[in-house]
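yo

u said u wanted the structure for the complex thing, so here. seqs first:
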Amino acid sequence: MSRKNNEGYKTFVNGFWRDHPIFGMVLGICSALAISNRVENAIAMGAGVTFVLVATALIISPLRSMIPLRARIITFMIVISTFVIIVDKFLKAFFPTISTAIGPYVGLIITNCIIMGRAEAFYTQNKPGISIIDAIANGLSYTYTLVIIAAVREVLGFGTLMGFRVTPTGWTNWVVMSMAPGAFFLLSIFIWLTRTIAKIESP
Amino acid sequence: MVYLLTIFFAAIFTHNVALTYLLGMCPFISLSRNLKTATGMAGAVIFVVTMTAAINWPIYHLVLVPSGSELIYYITFIVVIAASVQLVEMLMERFFPSLQAAFGIFLPLITVNCTVLAISLFMVLREYNFIQTMFFAVGSAIGWMLAIVMVAAINEKLELIGDIPKGYRGAAIIMVISGIIALSFLGFSGMLRIQ
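structre next:
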């Protein structure tokens, strides 16, 4: 195995577990809380964010020496929002029900700090290949976190999983799980568990 | 007039941006460890949200809609937000150095605060007119301030006396506090009705 492969592997593991965007760096919390009420929404959101991350890495990383330092934030914003428009139109055209369910939160992918954070910290300093690996790792770890939380919230809050009824008859929905407080409590439990397993100390 | 006040109070209590729509959570989690920083950030948010909503409404309704280019409103809004934040930062540095010291450091962070963009998007989605947009923007920003200040105040006391499990320190305990406050804000739901 060459050194390059090792580096790629290390970047992937870092993004996927050690520097996990949600419990490690506490980024992208807005959408992680707001979208995780149903599994299908979580998958759509995760796929959207992963797509935008990869596309941003693909654009920003080759151009990293040409972007002036003072104008970099606005450059990132324009690149990111272009791809978010594509995601928004794609969801509207092919998955109209999901598009109405997550509504304005698609547009808010623009301000998802994971994308800005990775662009600032990684894509401006690394070659395109490794940046794309990092983008995929971060996108996947964001997606699996959302899906795990959404699976718990959907079963408890609506009694369904991916739209199919999984709870026995006579089950009372925990309505609070489908609302904001449930999101807060579940994500905090998730962060606690993963931080304890990964032995991450709070900064 | 009654409808305007309804929008205003609904934005603070029943449809709170932070506790109902879960927006602006990144700065919410990272800055609510200390009451003073929380208040500074909240002041900057109120200012920027109001200003950008006031700029974005005419741009959307007088430029983008007549020219049929609603497609690019995400880009337009985010560029307006980033540019006006930069401008305010520069003006403040030049003319109000004391204000700059109080909340200038939060201004660059605001561009990625989802509250700011969300208010502009909601304004389009709910088809508010200009006056309604202003009441909605100020109300939402005050609601966000209310939430972050409450959480920061509780968290500050809790860190002094509480014996929090290791993995729970920092982000996770702030989410528990926010969850409890969000639960109590559910008590307001149904009091006011907006679209």
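Residues 130-161 of chain B form the longest helix (32 residues). Residues 167 and 173 of chain B are 9 Å apart (CA to CA).
cya
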